[in-house]
Amino acid sequence: MRRHRSTAAPTGAGRPLPALDQRALQRLARDMHSHEAAEQFAAAYTRMLAARVERIDQALSSGDDHQAMDAVLSLKTSSAMVGALRMEQHCARLEQALASINHSAAAAAGEEVKAHRPELEQALGVSVANPPRPGANSCKGTEPGPLFFALQARNTGPARRS
Asked: What is each CA distance from 44 to 38, 48, 158, in whole angstroms?
């Protein structure tokens, strides 16, 4: 499997990274030789997003830097894989603040992570009015999002599993 390079650095001229880059999930599907597996990964990421953000927030609120680092690394890595570039960028800032034991920067970065979640959920196709429950086992009640449709459009050739 090809190594994924980090996209956490800001883009040219200080422009923010896009909330979602669908090409990342398409690469994941190609690397895994399965669009279905990539779709399942995107669904799991979406389902777990609220709980992951909440875990970071709770760890920062309680001053548990170790737990915060564990949570942010998990969210940063999965965000990179699904193409959630701006979330990955926010997580990288939080990781850096935690590593340098800069609590005020960590708190600010944690707020960026929390504030970005609704925009990312919208980009992923999650209804803000009916978000997935943390820990829920399915995406019932949510409409397929752009990732789903992007993968469906690319579902040609031998990589498609039924």
From this structure: 10, 6, 24
pLDDT per position as a tens digit, 96-151: 999 999 999 999 999 999 999 999 999 988 533 343 444 443 333 334 455 544 55
pLDDT at 125: 83
Task: Count Cβ atoms below 10 Å from residue 88 Cβ, excluding itself.
Answer: 23
* Burial zone of 146 (CB within 10 Å; 0-12 exposed, 13-18 middle, 19+ buried): middle
Q: How many CA atoms lie within 13 A of 71 on its CB side?
A: 24
Q: Considering only CA atoms, which of 138, 135, 143, 67 is closest in space to residue 98? A: 67
